[in-house]
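Suppose a colleague, Dr. K., hands you the sequence of a protein chain of 299 amino acids and asks what its three-dimensional shape might be. Before reaching for any lab equipment, you can write down a predicted structure in token form. Begin with the sequence itself:
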Amino acid sequence: MRAQGIVAGVAVAACVLAACTPESSAPAPSASESSGSDPVPVLDYVALGDSAASGPRIPEQVGAPGCQRSDSNYPHVLAAQLEVGSFVDVTCSGAVTADIVSTPQSTSSGEVPVQVDALSADTDLVTVTIGGNDIGLVSTAVGCLTFTESSATNVCKDRLTAGGVDTVAAAIAENAPNWGAMLDAVAERSPDARILVVGYGTYLPDGGCFPTQPMLPEDADYIQDSITAMNVALKAQADEHGAEFVDTEALSVGHDVCVAPDQRYFEGVFPQNPAAPLHPTAAGMAAIGDAVAAAVRAE
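The predicted structure, expressed as tokens, is then:
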């Protein structure tokens, strides 16, 4: 999420769920034919999105430092798997939907162009992960962190749903039309492209795992339920605007922030892998890349 993050150590360490500078990666080698006989289509691939796609702190970081983009993020995994003809990765930590379609993004290393500028009429594959920063998901999660287990007044869910109004659900409803308009803008730039909206994963198990991750059970469920609601809205917009949705929640069940470090697809408040707090790990990026590649091949 834009310039939002988590303070690690004794407090919450600043972490960006989406704030980086665009970088174009070198074209991946193209494949002329499959292991059998039929030629493999040569794809011109562009990756758009926020830090859930860019991979902050995962080695090796490449491109403009402000975008915190990894050469092991899921777009790079996908490009290698499909052996695309050309590949441009403009994912950037901190990105919101406006940074994709209309507003150059400010980052710690300078301003980066609107992400759709990377598209052309020749682009025939686009992935996009966006939405978390639009609804302030990371800052909301940070506000739910607590080191006190018993707290009659410290249940974050109660504050966020006071008066019968779910503030995160309202933010999702408000932003959903913008996600659809963004998909239309992508299709306008690249009318022949196949567009895949890649969703957000299962960061937290049922009930969380306090105190391993400092969030009360009610709040852990609320945050993950909100991620699910965002994915539902993203899928609805994809369906309505001629794109496809790739679910990553199911594949990441059992690989959340509460499991052993070597099993995690997402890092927790105190990272045990080289990844930003509440962001995908290298293993998570590999799994997401595999899932997107399977979706592309299943056409």
